[in-house]
Fold these 3 entries.
Entry 1:
Amino acid sequence: MLKAIIVDDEARARRILENYIKDYCPQVQILAIVEDVPSAIIAINAFNPDIVFLDIEMPTFNGFQLLDSIDNIAFEIIFTTAYSEYALKAFQVSAIDYLLKPIQVNQLIAAVKKVEKIQGSSMLQERLKTLQQNLVDYKVKKIVVPMSEGSLFVELKEIIYLKAEGSYVHLFFKDGTKILVSKNIKDYEDQLTNNEGFFRTHRSFLVNADFVNKISSDGTEAILTNGSLITISRERKQEFISFMKGKYQPLLSETN
């Protein structure tokens, strides 16, 4: 049984979440329901919860200020938020669970199941730090990469490109190292393209535009600063060239 506390300043939001948990998450026992940060601190110290369902935007003190006031966070957090779709990227790449208001039952069930799986080995402090960094100006700066021995916290500016290999992805870094991750490249594409400066040039490649040095004269390859050749598919060629023109003017010189 997972012990839980709900923290939200809106009475209706508290009531809906409480009812959903009781109806659809029988493995969760709600020990306290509070409306502000001071009450939440008291409840956390009193009940030692496994999960805190935490609203971010609250009067006087917000959810992050609650976390800053706790020296050793020994519980998992599921944020409840009305953040914009773009800002939610920060949660996704930081491996922090959230429930977007109005809360959907299937999302709640999935979030609770995830807590059950990672409980006790979640590196929560590091993930929260990454989240707070990524929420500055709603700009993703760092991602959490799952590893067999835990999690790796990677700055986007260190990644040159990603290459798919079946259901795995190789990440190549500017220091010459690379790692293999058990994750689909589509997941990274959804998180990093457009506003984060990455582009899916081919089904197998996701490239950091900052490391593109040249584009071949026929537009089928990108030459990166480390000398790597990245394939550009025919159907994505024009879109990639337009992307580079929009991001860097003038377009990087083409090879002969």
Entry 2:
Amino acid sequence: MAENIMVVVAHPDDAEFGCAGTIALKVKEGAHVTYVVCTDGDKGTPDPSLSPVRLTQVRKGEQWCAAGVLGVQEVVFLGYPDGALEDSYGFRQDLVRLIRKHRPDIVFTMDPYRHYQLHRDHRIVGLVTMDAVFPYSRDPLHHPELLAEGLEPHKVKEIFLFSSDNADSYVDISTTFETKLNALACHESQMRSLESWRSLMTEWATVFGEKAGVPLAEGFKRLEMRK
């Protein structure tokens, strides 16, 4: 049976930086992938003349472009303001609802415990996603209002944390590295120089590749969920 995968990130472009090579590979293998983008990315520009409303529109379009390059089948935008994610009941409930609805086998998200993780949204999305996976999505007495929506508890099998200082699982992306770069190129509002990013992405993938014994890789902290 094909894997069902959910990728939960803070901003448009986070998934492309962190796990796009792996996602492209999983799609080729037949996986169904859902992206969950938690903020609207409305602050992600150095240009003060660009309104938040317009930037949101631009970044949504860029994210759909990247999803198309990778073969990601669904993109859900939660629409929280950029920079304003909170570890709240409402945010966690949003993620529990999506996990119970889409019922992923594997969830990819950002490692909230990365040393000096400077963007607060990244820390919060990782923490709340991990909480949503376990125990809140699994146990029926958490968020009982979702049962009334017909959303039964669901147990995720694995979490893969990217942008981690403690990677212990590596995926060979030698065949999908160019796809990853093409997906990143969709985020034109964030890419001042694609060639400079190509150099950096190659450097990162080479470091992980050396650890995995392959040319290019992405690295993750893998958590296998208890039965």
Entry 3:
Amino acid sequence: MWKVPVTLDALKEYSKNTIVEHLGIEFLEVGENFLKAKMPVDHRTRQPLGIMHGGASCVLAETLGSIAANCVVDKKTNYCVGLDINTNHIRSVSSGFVIGMTKPFHLGRSTQVWGIEVFDENQKLISVSRLTMAVLSR
């Protein structure tokens, strides 16, 4: 599936000086058809009620889907940008880490659709997202 070599070191380097680094998102695993990362639930990602902000969940989801989308196109001719994200918040979390994993639903010439699930450290489902990406020509 991957059109470019995808390594954890390359993903870390790619994320320097971005929201990914600022929020402490760390890539964990690159599989044959998935990408996985974790994000802390701390002062950077909590809302005033003390639980993880829904927007932080969306940032993790869009990070995973967007980076994965750009790794399945020929970077010499194409790049991907987000068109739409839909997130359902299932359960709240107030501490520790959340772990997100993305897999593609559709990898087309002009659009891609990615599914992202976010779990807490006890593998309880926190949120589900669907991310639509536009595939653009350079």
